[in-house]
Amino acid sequence: MIPDGYNSGDLLWLGDWGPVWIVVLTLIGVLVIGVSAYDLRGLKPLRRFTLVTLRALVYLCAVVMLLEPALDLKNISRVKNHVAVVVDTSESMSLKLDEDGTTRMSRVHEVLPDLAPYIEQHKDDHIFHFFSYGEQAEGILQSSREELESSSSDGKFSDLGSALKAVDARFVEEELGGVIVYSDGIDSGAMGNRTRRGEALDSTSKSFVESLGVPINTVAAASQEGLRDVAIARVMRDDFAFVHNKVSVDVEVQVIGVPEQPLTVTLARGTEELQTRQIQLTKDQTLYKVRFEFVPRQIGQEIYSVKVPVLENEALITNNQSMFLLRVIRDKIRALQVVGRPSWDERFMRRLLKRDPNIDLISFFILRTGESLSNASRNELSLIPFPTSDLFDKELGSFDLVIFQNFNFGPYNMRQYLPKIEEFVKKGGGFVMIGGDLSFASGGYARTAIEEALPVGLPAGRGKLIDTSRFRPELTKAGLRHPITQLAFDPATNTQLWATLPEQRGTNIVGKALPGATVLATHPKLRAGGKPMPVITIGSHGEGRVMAMTTDSTWRWGFESLGDGGTPREYQLFWHNAMRWLIKDPELKLVKLELAEDTTHPDARVEIGVRVSNSDYSPAQNRPGEVVITHTPHTPTEQPLTLEPLPIQTNSAGVAQIEFVPERTGVYELVARVNDEQGDPLEDRQLVLVVPDLREFQTIIPRDDLLEAIATQTDGAFSNIQDASKARSPRLLEPRTVKVNRRKVIQLWDSALAFLLIMMLLGAEWTLRRRWGRL
Amino acid sequence: MTTRNRRTFLTQSMSALASVLGAALYPARDAHAMGDDDHLKLAWLMPDGSEPGTRTTALRRILQEVEKRTSIKVDATSHVVTIGEEMFDYPMLFLSGSGDFKPWSDEQVDHIRLWVKGGGFLVVDSHEALADGPFLRAARRELARIYPDDKLTEVPGNHVLYKSFYIIKDPRGRVKAHAPLEAYFEQDRLSVVLSPMDMLGAWARDGFGRWEYEMSSGNETEREYAIRMGVNLVMYALCVNYKDDQVHIPFILKRRTWKVE
Fold first, then answer.
1. How high is the ipTM of this complex?
2. Any CB–CB contact under 8 A between A289 and chain B?
3. Which among A30, A127, A522, B121 counts the fewest CB atoms within 10 Å?
């Protein structure tokens, strides 16, 4: 019986007695009863029982008084918990469901008011909060039902997992009673990626949704009924590839509502169609995977696109194409070393190249000529024919660098391949001719295509083609600081170092350097065209680079110098630098354009860094220049447009930082232009691919299966707006927190009634005991 | 001018023209060689500075064979070097002899170590034709000082040394090897090879073209195989493991996909 004004009562024991004391008191009680029963053994059983019972009751009352019983009366009420109503406002919700223009979002707008009666009905137990997600990469935005009933759907993100996590964080201090999600189920976040269409919720996602500890009720805004679309859902590839190495691109094509038919998927590089793959659409399959494999042809950036044809009545056509930018880099320098005869120069060069893990070397040595005697059958010799056609016709383009080391082409019917080598250089290959009696003019290269590529002229007459005297090459002004001949940073030390290198044993006679070529070292005595004869000369031929080294004894820099107490460092450094320069190693560029991202979306900021070095590779400080940006739209009918150049000025570290915001889709070519110390122009260029932000549209098939799986996993209810038969009321947890409005504690032991009861029991026991003849 | 004279004139004119054209297109090698410094030279390593007493023609003869059989240009002059700076003019040296020899000084050991590690190739050949004779025992003793952390190992039968020019299944010198060649390796390269086969004995030939030493088997045709071993040693010194590359080329090319499909 609880008094008025209270709705809850509990019995309390105020006595501070521990369990040990309770046991002791119980044992004492048993002992008292046992002793009494034994003491009263002479009485009749009824009398004996009566007395023992009275004594037990007295003892019990005493113990109860010791425990101090009390009545705890309370007036309590329950505290409402919180319910989060989360609405997906990402762009995919703007997709039309039918030809009337009804969108997924408008369907949500229609049903949100239906939530009002439910909210009214449960207002005593729950407080409803409204949020949207999709506008930002992560989290939720506070909203209201009224706002959501007219909300737009232009968010670029649909990370449901992140939204649920944000809800959990928002109510971490309060009691959450449930979540109600309105969405089409498309989840571009981790949960959507982990759980593939048609598959059960993965274990990580299961653990995550369960960790919220509340039912997650989901309302699907759409189903795939009537939807018709073909989409490049995903393109899986690496950000960079190695030139001449196979690249794989895996493409997922999502198809819905399209009858059984073949579908062509096309891979294109720029405007050039590279490959096609045919897939056969079937009724029960929505996801198709195709793989493209191709070999990038040249180093640099290339724009690729994967596309499928636009079908009639497609829900969306912008997702029929996906573009990407592939950065093609060199994995190793692929060098072809062709040697006319084995020699120490060849041996030490080969050893140097073979030991370099960055060089993939293919050597070909002429071990035997037509003049050589043969004392053995073919089977006893380990020789193979010189594969001129394979090397210089079929495979030449796969090399970065060709080294002709004391090699004469004449005996091998190679004249027809010399123009191909010249063409190889013109297209960007590197070529170096190293001296010897089979090189340069004495190798018969005068008036050939090779001479056109070389940076020095060759004497054509029958005069002296070789000088056998020993000499030390002398650095020119350019050679003092050029990375190839810069064996020491300080020019004076560099000059001194070159003066102590072992002497070269003879040189080929060459003419003067051609216009545009750079002479790095000259002969101390021989002259060509009135100037010291070039010994080390570099130059460009078309897109490629060439080098002429007129001696065949640089190996002595690496071996003979050991005997003089030196090291092979100079030999190694010289040739490593030469190889790097010949293949245009990006690290040796004097101006470098650096971008944080090479693929972006319209109106996203692009940060540009321009790093400028002096010719000695020290930072070029306070160097002015500009970045010229040319926009080439994706639509072929529009002409490229060059924007206003952005001025730059390098800082003390030789770096200039600028930024620009591309406004339209297309390819933006950025060219950084700076002059070097001599005023000669330097430039570097990079591409930026600007594509529409299609993350929301790469897959547009509603994921009601994902929503249902989440609801099922958390004991929530799943409904589909398009299917009234699946309408379910949300399941929410009852509030667990209560609030005490009033409280009263009545101490039951502290009363005269309890005292009188004990006294009466004691008196009755005493009276009866006396009457029945006991003292 | 008689008919005969006209024919002679025409013939001589055509010959001269052909010579000029031929020379212009393919200049003769000897006419333009970079000089003796450019040619392959071999030398004896004589730590005590003495001259080799026997087999003095061996290196000259093997160089001549190398030039005859391969594209390599040689300087077929006998050279002798002591341990010191001049070793570094010769990346390939021969140490041959018989009998024990006195230990090298620490400085000499350091010099040879620098030479082999820098790229030198030393061929040690015993005149005794004994795998465990006094000469090779002394050589092993001194080489162990050069390579204190490495062990002398057998040159495997499939090593590129045996296919650097000729395919050699049964290496031999003046005597047939009863034990395999031994070597020290510098990474993947042979830096020192020990031969008990008296290869130099098989190569030595006097000024009249007579072989100086009989083949132990008495079979002169076997001398050809000893010369082939010498050619392979020289070719290996110059090309190292090039012949291994050749085996790999088809695989390297296959590994790459050259063409865009």
1. 0.84
2. no
3. A30
